[in-house]
Amino acid sequence: MTTINIKTIDATNKKLGRVASMAAVSLMGKDSVAFARHILTDIKVEVINAGKINADDTKKRTKIYKRYSGYPGGQRELTLEKITEKKGMKEAVRIAIKGMLPKNRLQAKMLKNLTITD
After folding, report:
1. Global pTM value
2. Residue 1: is its pLDDT beyond 90?
3. pLDDT tens per residue, range 79-114
4. Which fold has domain 5-57+89-116?
5. What is the pLDDT of residue 4?
6. Which helix (DSSP H) or strand (DSSP E) does residue 62 occupy?
7. Which of 117, 114, 101, 105 is nearest to 43 (CA)?
8. Which of 46, 55, 48 is nearest to 10 (CA)?
9. HEC string of 30-44?
10. Are 6 and 44 in contact (CB under 8 A)?
């Protein structure tokens, strides 16, 4: 019988990258004794107070997130300000954590173990 560990990260007055890297390390299981790169860990990560992340106004205006649909002219750019305006800071935290996880079959499964609350 496996036990599920829950790690809670409080994002109050912390930078976005610091919170994302702590969450990514925990989701990958790198802070665990039984770390294996190819095995999904049974750790759930909960990021609380995501709306209270310390983000400067200049960072909100200049940080650009890009995505590409694959079609000509399909590259879209959004600033951090637009993302937080539309979906809240929770989405920015999720994007940052996803970018720090390995790009393999386990990425989607690791993201299912992530919970972000304002």
Report:
1. 0.92
2. no
3. 999 999 999 999 999 999 999 999 999 999 999 999
4. Ribosomal Protein L13p; Chain: A; (3.90.1180)
5. 81
6. helix 57-62
7. 114
8. 48
9. CCCCCCCCCCCCCEE
10. yes
Segments making up each domain of the chain, as ranges: 5-57+89-116
CA atoms of 114 and 109, how far apart (whole Å) = 9
Instruction: Identify the burial level of 55 via C-beta atoms within 10 angstroms of its C-beta, where 0-12 means exposed, 13-18 middle and 19 or more buried.
Output: middle
Query: SS3 helix, strand, coil % of the chain, rounded to 5?
Result: 40, 20, 35
Per-residue pLDDT reduced to its tens digit, 27-75: 999 999 989 999 999 999 999 999 999 999 999 999 999 999 999 999 9
Both tokens of residue 55?
Answer: 């983000």
Distance from C-alpha of 97 to C-alpha of 94, rounded to nearest angstrom = 5
Pairing of strands 64-68, 75-79: antiparallel
